[in-house]
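ok so I'm stuck.
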Amino acid sequence: MKKLLTFVLTIATLCGSVSAQTKKITLEDIWMRATFRPSGISSIRSMQDGEHYCVLTRSGIEKYSYKTGEKVGVVCAFNDPMRKKARPMPPVESYEFSADEQKILLSAEFEPIYRHSGVSSYYIYNVADGSMECITQEGKQRLTTFSPDGKMVAYVRDNNLYVMALNSKKETAVTTDGKFNEIINGTTDWVYEEEFGITKGFYWSPDSKKIAFYRFDESRVKQYSMQMWGELYPENYTYKYPKAGEDNSVVDVMVYDLESQKTMKLNIGSQNDQYMPRMQWTQNPNVLAMMRMNRLQNKMELLLADATTGTLRTLYVEEDDAYVEVPDTWMFLKDGKNMLLTSEKNGYNHIYMYDLNGKMVRQITDGFFDVVSICSVDEKAGVIYYLSHESSPINRELYCIDFKGKKKKKLSDRAGWYSASFSATSKYYISTFTDANTPPIYTLHTSNGKLLKTLQDNADLRQRMEEYGVGHKTFGTLTTSLGTELNYYIILPPDFDSTKRYPLFFYVYGGPGNQQVTNSYGYNDYYWFHMLAQHGYVVACFDGRGTGGRGAHFKKMTYRNLGKMECEDAVEAARWFGKKQWIDESRIGIFGWSFGGYLSTLSILKGHDVFKSAIAVAPVITWRYYDNIYTERFLQRPQDNARGYDDNSPLNFANLLKGNYLLVHGTGDDNVHFQNAVDMVTALEAAGKQFEFRIYPNKNHSIYGGNTRLNLYELMTDFIYRKL
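replied:
not stuck anymore, here's the structure
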């Protein structure tokens, strides 16, 4: 406490002297004028030689030297005046090189389906002659991907998988039974997309002779309907959404042989009670690797399938008393003998090497920290480059280590949050660094960490941040009555005076494995929180039990009982801060979105003697309404654990509301259904409670589009000023 107060007083002295000179942040600055938008480098792609990389700009694809960081040419100009074309090229959104880098696949005119999926128009650019041709013939398509030999592309259209030969533009239908809300080929259903993070559901074999793909039969999955407003007679949008305890899609894994044009179904077991969250080819073009999990997700198997005979064998099995996370990395090495795998099986997420007989060669990383992901592997040198939380859960840093788990070296030189994009040969990398008060800095390095060039430092934005008095986000820890240390960050008013008392505004999320207290740069809410601080509010956020970055035990504490510990920690954190002489304990508020909206709602109800006000945006109100992959992973099925679903539902505590409550939801939310808000309104009305409620017609879980975000933040800001 002494250390924190000393720091607080120092900040007060520094900030008080400049507060009169700083500009005031407005919501228009954040949401309309992009005053604080950082500059970046888009879509970095290493070229095969490992000496050059490409980036995407509005006008084309530019080529740079890794050695110097200097531009050496333009690989593709999207609207070259010398090129004959029927119409101008629309803005390009992504690109992919063929293996020989003589063709480039460009996508444009993206139309979203759900949050992570959509359809696009695709073009092929010929590097040799500068010609460009649209290959989207029968309507927009999805997930278009080169074959490894660059002679074909595969894609999904209208739930069917297709292959096109690029020399003739001849299209071949791999499947023909695709149908909306019934059969999906080559991509995934809604719940796989949302919870397993995959939309691409087909994979070329390394020799371009086969395609493995998913087939989803969602006929038995129950439908959810959302009314879409705006016409004389509103339309219903109906889609398949498997809620907790309900039927899933039946998933098959198929292998299509391009030469014979025949498809083989693999015998992967009982499709009704399992998941297949990952699939990839090994270095052997006839061996397909698949990941299989049981419905409760506490057992994960890696299977190898002979793609010529269909024979399966088990390579690896992992089980847990709670749940097994889908590995961040499972990578088959080019030696054809070993694979790298990340696992939490020793209590923290670490890197392991296994041979293809399923025998562990060695554990490569070890310690009381989580590895986040593998960035690159230099097989020739036997070195792995990876990100981890080794110094602190709030930091993410870049390390390298050899295949024997020796010669570990930290490559990042500052405390903060790193990502890295490596060259094809792992000789160079481009690092992106931020910390709590520093926007992205892009730097070019050799593989030993030597700085070659700063590519973008956002110096203009940092200057603007100074002009607006931004940059006072700091970190600390608090200890609960149970002795649990929780990380938090805090933003103080720029003219902070420790002899005054300030209202406290908490931001929370709290979902399993999630982290909000990180030494990284945030954009919109970061500036909103600073705007609130300029208006005299202390803003804070904490990561309670169940959050990530602190090992499997800490994360899995909330298993089978979501909401209980998270709410207890929210109340304790509020009381801990409320005891500070500079906090007005009668004016503590809480805000959250999605799981955070669930937690903010539950906290103002169960912690009605602590919290004066709460804002909940798109909250889960009962886990019975949420999808089965996410919810059953943490609570099991409702049939197995009814109390885990009901004991901490805000519906059961509506009568405890004493403070000010703002509930916000979009009617077009395909993730957390508007149904949740309807039931909360019903429960509060039945309990005779007054509250505020805002509906955003047709808006999804993110509540954006046009002026919507500005309107939402005006609404929430006004509520805070009036009710806290």
